[in-house]
Amino acid sequence: MNQKAQSFKVSDIHEFSFKFEAVFVGKAHLNGKIDKMIIDKTNKTITIVLIKVTLKVLFVSLCVFLYLNRHLIVKTLIFVVKSGCLNSFI
Questions:
Q1: Distance between CA 58 and CA 46 in Å, rounded?
Q2: What is the pLDDT along the chain (90 residues), one digit of tens a residue?
Q3: Can you name the residues that pair with 23 across neighbouring β-strands?
Q4: Cβ–Cβ < 8 Å for 16, 64
Q5: Coil, helix or strand for 14?
Q6: Contact 73/87 with Cβ under 8 angstroms?
Q7: Distance between CA 56 and CA 37 in Å, rounded?
Q8: Strand order in the sheet with 45-49
Q9: Which residues contact 48 (CB under 8 A, 6 or more apart)?
Q10: In sequence order, what DSSP letters do the residues of 22-84 get, joined into one string?
Q11: Given this model, what pLDDT does residue 52 score?
Q12: What are the C-alpha distances in Å from 81 to residues 20, 70, 75?
């Protein structure tokens, strides 16, 4: 029991529901819960811990990750297009 108690931190988020986070794939509205999110503000990362790992849960987790990082992804794509990096592939 002591070992499990050490794995809980105040900064972690447990049973995070993304039902109202407007996560869509096409017209499909995704909703559910993430068992545990470990927030590392120093490295600016979020680790998603899944207790029940199924393909559906992994897919939803990927969608949440992409949704939460959408601004960075869009900025990266804009940079790639503006920098001309794609010219060699076109």
A1: 15
A2: 555 556 667 778 888 887 888 878 888 887 878 888 888 888 888 888 877 656 676 777 788 888 888 888 778 777 777 777 666 555
A3: 30
A4: no
A5: strand
A6: no
A7: 18
A8: 13-17, 33-40, 45-49
A9: 34, 36, 37, 61, 64, 65
A10: -EEETTEEE--EEEEEEEETTTTEEEEE-SS--HHHHHHHHHHHHHHTHHHHHHHHHHHHHHT
A11: 64
A12: 33, 16, 10
**Residues listed for the chain:** 90
Residue with tokens 């393909």: 55
Residue at 30: amino acid letter: L
Amino acid symbol at 23: V
Residue 21 is which amino acid? E
